[in-house]
Write a structure and sequence with these properties.
This protein is an alpha/beta fold and 486 residues long. The protein has helices spanning 80-96, 123-126, 137-147, 184-200, 225-233, 240-262, 289-292, 297-303, 324-331, 357-368, 383-387, 393-401, and strands at 50-51, 59-64, 101-107, 151-156, 170-173, 176-179, 205-208, 267-270, 308-309, 340-346, 375-381, 423-425, 429-431, 436-443, 446-452, 457-458, 464-472, 480-485. The protein folds into two domains: 1-49 and 410-486, no CATH class; 59-401, Glycosidases (TIM Barrel). The strands form four sheets. The chain has an eight-stranded parallel barrel with strand order 2-3-4-7-8-9-10-11, surrounded by four helices. A five-stranded antiparallel sheet has the order 1-18-17-14-15, with no helix packed on it.
C-alpha cells in the first residue's frame, strides 16, 4: 500500500500547466488555510520544478459510538477534562496506526453531542438528557481529529427517537419511540439537524447507520397504519413495503441534495446491513434488509445519492451461510462513477474461537483484492478493540496494512480542474492553496507524511529529495513541488 505514482520526467515550471496558477476557490463559507496570494513564491525564492505524485488512497476508519456509552465517553458524568482526555486517547491510538477517519456518533437518540436548538443534549454526557455538559464535544472532536490527520464524520441515527418520552410523529416500538419515516415533519427535522451540523462544524462527512425501519421484534407490529391509510386515501398505489422503502429513499435523496447544496466537499454515505436480500448472492441466508427494514442500498448507489456504502460484513470468512468473501464480491459490483465501498468489520468479536487475529488478516487481503472494483477501505466496529490493540489488532493493521500514511479516496463529486500546488519557502514551510485539508510529503517514491494543512505548514525534512503536494477537501491532489535538502 501507499506506493507512489512518482512519474520521473513529468517536471514543469511553477507557473506552467501543472497548476501553478490554477488555485481553486474555497467552498462558500470556508476561508481555507492560506491567504489569497499563497501561490506567489516568496521574494528571492526561484520557481521550483514539479512532479506528478499520488498514492493508494483508502478509508481507514473506526466508529466511535456514544449510545449507551459503548465507546466514548466511558460513562456519563465525566468532567469535561476527563471526557476530552478519553477522546484524545482514542484519536492518538488510531492516528498511531496511520488510520485516517473517525465516525463519531453525534446523534444517538434524536439528541445531540453539541449545542443545538433543535434537539436536547444527550444523556450519555451528563447522565440526564437536556443538561449542558459545559463544553462542545463536536467542536473539540473536529479540532483534535484534524490535528492528527484524522477526518471527522458526523454519524447520526435518523429515526431512533427519544428514550424518555414519546416524541411527536413517532411510533412506539420495542419499548421506545421510533420516528415515523412517513412523516414529512420528521424528514424535514432530520434535514434541519444535518444542515445545522454541516454549516456550524468543519466535518468531513455525514454518515447514517443501518437503523431505518426498526429491526423486527417477534410479536410486535410497527403501527404506521394511519400514515399508510392517509397515503392510499390520497390516491397512493404503492404496496406497504414499497411505500416504506420509498419513504426511506426520499430521506436519502433529500440528504444527498442537502449535502450537495450546503457542503459539497463533505462525504455522504450509509452503512447498511451486510445482507441485501437472502439469496443475493446465491447461498446467502439471513435477515432481508430490503423487506424487513426497507433498506434499498443498491438503489441509492445506482441513483448516485451516496458517495459510498459501508456494508456491515460482520461474519467471519469461515461462515458459509453469510460468507464474507461472497458478500464482499457482491457489494463490489455496485460502485460506479467514482463511488466507493468501505467494508465494515466486526472488531468486537476478536478473540472468539472463530475470530482469531488471522481472520482480520484474511479479510483485509480479500478486500484489497477488490480495489479495482471500488472497494477502497475499511471501517471497524468499533474503535474500542482497535484502540486497546486487543489480540494485536491495531499492531497488525499498522504493520501489515497501514505502514505508510494515506489520505481517503477522492469524493465522486470532486472537481476535475487542476489543483494549485503549495508554495514552498526554503525547505521548512509550505503555504498550501485555499481549501487544502492535508499537505502530503513524498520521498524516494513513497508518501512519508501527511500533515494537517495550516498557513504556514511547517516541514521537517532531512537530507534528500522530496515532493510536496496539497490535498483538498474533495480529496483532489496537486502536483508535487520538488524540494532538495542538501
Amino acid at each position: 500500500m501507499a506506493r507512489v505514482a512518482f512519474i520521473a520526467g513529468f517536471v514543469c515550471a511553477l507557473a506552467s500547466a501543472c497548476g501553478g496558477d490554477d488555485a481553486t476557490e474555497a467552498p462558500s463559507g470556508d476561508p481555507g488555510p492560506g491567504p489569497a496570494d499563497a501561490q506567489k513564491p516568496p521574494e528571492g525564492d526561484p520557481p521550483r520544478a514539479q512532479v506528478s505524485v499520488g498514492h493508494d488512497r483508502e478509508m481507514r476508519g473506526a466508529w466511535v459510538a456514544t449510545v449507551n456509552n459503548s465507546t466514548w465517553p466511558s460513562k456519563p458524568g465525566l468532567t469535561p477534562a476527563a471526557s476530552q482526555a478519553e477522546l484524545v486517547g482514542i484519536f492518538d491510538a488510531l492516528a498511531s496506526a496511520h488510520m485516517n477517519a473517525v465516525f463519531l456518533h453525534v446523534r444517538p437518540h434524536a439528541d445531540a453531542f453539541y449545542p443545538s436548538t433543535l434537539e436536547p443534549w444527550s444523556k450519555y454526557l451528563t447522565g440526564t438528557q437536556g443538561v449542558d455538559p459545559g463544553w462542545d464535544p463536536l467542536a473539540f472532536a473536529v479540532t483534535e481529529a484534524h490535528k492528527r490527520r484524522l477526518e471527522l464524520h458526523a454519524w447520526i441515527n435518523p429515526y431512533r427517537g427519544l428514550v424518555e418520552a414519546l416524541a411527536a410523529d413517532a411510533v412506539q416500538y420495542g419499548g421506545q419511540p421510533w420516528m415515523n419515516p412517513a412523516s414529512k415533519a420528521v424528514q424535514q427535522h432530520i434535514y434541519d439537524v444535518l444542515k445545522d451540523i454541516l454549516t456550524r462544524y468543519d466535518v468531513d462527512g455525514v454518515h447514517l447507520d443501518d437503523f431505518f425501519y426498526p429491526y423486527p421484534i417477534s410479536g410486535e407490529t410497527f403501527d404506521d397504519s394511519a400514515s399508510y391509510t392517509a397515503y392510499t386515501n390520497g390516491g397512493g398505489t404503492l404496496s406497504l413495503g414499497d411505500w416504506r422503502r420509498d419513504n426511506v429513499n426520499t430521506l436519502i435523496h433529500g440528504i444527498s441534495d442537502l449535502v450537495a447544496k450546503t457542503k459539497p466537499e463533505a462525504r455522504f454515505g450509509v452503512s447498511p446491513f451486510g445482507i441485501y436480500r437472502p439469496g443475493t448472492p446465491p447461498g446467502i441466508t439471513g435477515l432481508d434488509a430490503y423487506a424487513d427494514i426497507y433498506c434499498d442500498a443498491p438503489h441509492w448507489m445506482k441513483e448516485g445519492w451516496v458517495d459510498y456504502l459501508a456494508p456491515q460484513l460482520y461474519w467471519p470468512t469461515t461462515k458459509t451461510a453469510q460468507a464474507y468473501e461472497k458478500l464482499l464480491d457482491w457489494w463490489a459490483t455496485l460502485p460506479e462513477n467514482g463511488q466507493s465501498i468501505f467494508i465494515g468489520h466486526d472488531a468486537t468479536s476478536i478473540g472468539l474461537a472463530t475470530w482469531p487475529l488471522s481472520e482480520y488478516d484474511t479479510q483485509m487481503q480479500l478486500l484489497r483484492g477488490q480495489r479495482s472494483n471500488g472497494v477502497r477501505g475499511s471501517i471497524f466496529w468499533s474503535a474500542t478493540p482497535v484502540v486497546a490493540d486487543k489480540d494485536g489488532l491495531r499492531t497488525m493493521l499498522a504493520t501489515e496494512y497501514y505502514g505508510l500514511p494515506a489520505a481517503t479516496p477522492p469524493l465522486k463529486v470532486a472537481p476535475t480542474d487542476v489543483l494549485a500546488v503549495p508554495t514552498i519557502a526554503g525547505s521548512t514551510t509550505a503555504m498550501p492553496p485555499s481549501g487544502t485539508r492535508f499537505v502530503a510529503v513524498y520521498k524516494d517514491g513513497a508518501i512519508v507524511d501527511l500533515l494537517p494543512a495550516a498557513s504556514p505548514t511547517p516541514l521537517s525534512l532531512t537530507k534528500g529529495t522530496y515532493a510536496i503536494s496539497a490535498i483538498d477537501r474533495f480529496g483532489r491532489e496537486s502536483a508535487g513541488v520538488v524540494v532538495d535538502v542538501p
